[in-house]
Design brief:
This protein is mostly helical and 145 residues long. The chain has one domain. Helices cover 83% and strands 0% of the residues. The protein has five helices and no strands. The longest helix is centred in the first third of the chain and has 33 residues. The mean pLDDT is 95.
Length: 145
């Protein structure tokens, strides 16, 4: 059961990562391809015109979302899958900080809806819960042996 929980956690960390890799890449592509207005349209805020600096900042932030998503996915496949404590710590920190930023800077002021925010947050909660229980059981089994 411990192995199964670790793998379920890894799958959900991977899904969180893929969601952010795809979402960040889509916003980045729209911003770079068609300008800031197209990038901000993802947030239903295409009231532009937006200045080039706003587009550059949006592009930088969406690039960060994409690479963190890619990194979380790689860690999920390599470390969380094997129930390693370092994978849990890395992914919980990376994904957790990204979701804290989402809540503080986008959800709380009302720029995104709770429905949109819950997609990633739910994946993170499931991943962290399953991986955390799996690590706890692993340590408990090691202590008993």
């Amino acid at each position: 059961m411990t192995r199964v929980l670790a793998r379920i956690g890894a799958v959900f960390f991977g899904l969180w990562g893929l969601l952010h890799l795809v979402g960040g890449s889509a916003i980045l592509a729209a911003t770079l391809g068609s300008g800031p207005d197209a990038g901000f349209a993802f947030y239903q805020m295409a009231d532009g015109p937006f200045p080039p600096l706003a587009g550059a900042i949006l592009a930088m932030n969406s690039f960060t979302i994409a690479w963190v998503g890619a990194l979380v996915t790689v860690i999920a496949l390599t470390r969380n899958w094997r129930n390693e404590c370092s994978g849990f710590a890395l992914n919980l920190t990376l994904a957790g900080l990204m979701d804290v930023a989402l809540v503080v800077f986008l959800l709380a002021p009302g720029y995104v809806t709770i429905g949109n925010a819950l997609n990633g947050i739910s994946l993170l909660v499931i991943a962290a819960t399953c991986s955390g229980i799996a690590l706890y059981r692993k340590q408990k089994e090691s202590a008993a042996a």
